[in-house]
Every structure is written in structure tokens, then in C-alpha cells.
Amino acid sequence: QVQSVESGGGLVQAGDTLRLSCKASVSGRAPNIYGVGWFRQAPGKEREFVAGITWSGANTHYTDSVKGRFTISRDSAKNTVYLHMNSLKPEDTAVYYCAVRIIPIANYEDQRLYAYWGRGTQVTVSS
């Protein structure tokens, strides 16, 4: 199976930087992993896609609201995916989740293609 564990959240001010980590631990019989996605859920809102990366690290995709501010990357040696968040805004406040994409369809944003969700890490950006 696969276990995803997020870390790195915290309370920051607008304009600050944070780096989130998603450690994907694989044990026993596990499905093929095609990528990792970051999602977030703000209070009272639906969970939404933020950024995704293929398992090779060769391709990435971002939602429009974070383009130019967030960067997703992967350290293959550590089986860890990072979300570098620059120029944070109060509207980025949410619980951030990562999950692995186990369906070989190149649609980063469809949450149905992901499994083994982490428990999330809180990011709070004050104005």
C-alpha cells in the first residue's frame, strides 16, 4: 500500500514563503503511481486542485490562482514531493492535502484519479 504524509504547514503573513512536503511511503503490494497532486480545502468550501506532478517529475500542472507563485517538485531519492509557496495571500489559507494518482490518465485535476490521501497540513496566511 501507499501512505502519504504531509508536513510543513504553519501560520505566516501575507507575502511570506512556505514549503510543504508530501512523503509517499510504499510498502507491500502497491498500485502503480503515475503522479502526486496537492489539493486544498478552505473553511466552507469544496476541496480544490492546486498543483500536480508526474511521478517522473517531468511534467507539472497548476491551477490558475497559484501559477507564478507556487512550484511543485519531486525528490525521487526521498520519495517526497514539495510544494514551494511564495507570495502567499490570505486566500491561500486552507488545509493542504496530497494524494497519489493511481490511474494512468493525464488529468491532474480530477480527484477521482487519486488515492491514499494524507491527513492534511494547515496553512494560515494572515493579512
Structure description:
The mean pLDDT is 95. The strands form 2 sheets. Strands 2, 4, 5, 6, 9, 10 and 11 form a 7-stranded mixed β-sheet that branches. The chain has a 4-stranded antiparallel β-sheet with strand order 1-3-8-7, with no helix packed on it. The radius of gyration is 14 Å and the shape is globular. It is built from no helices and 11 strands. It has strands spanning 2-7, 10-13, 18-26, 35-41, 48-54, 60-62, 70-75, 80-85, 94-101, 114-115, 121-126. By secondary structure, the protein is mainly beta. Strand 4 (35-41) and strand 5 form a beta hairpin.
Which structural traits does this protein have?
seven-stranded mixed beta sheet, four-stranded antiparallel beta sheet, 127 residues, mainly beta, 0% helix
What's the β-strand tally? 11
Low-pLDDT stretches? none
How widely separated are the two ends? 40 Å
Computed over alpha carbons, the radius of gyration is: 14 Å
- H/E series: EEEEEEEEEEE
The global form is: globular
Helical run tally: 0
Proportion of residues in β-strands: over 45%
Helical residue percent band: under 10%
Biggest β-sheet: count, sense, barrel? 7 strands, mixed
Query: From the helix content, strand content and strand pairing, which structural class follows?
Result: mainly beta
Give the integer mean of the pLDDT values.
Answer: 95
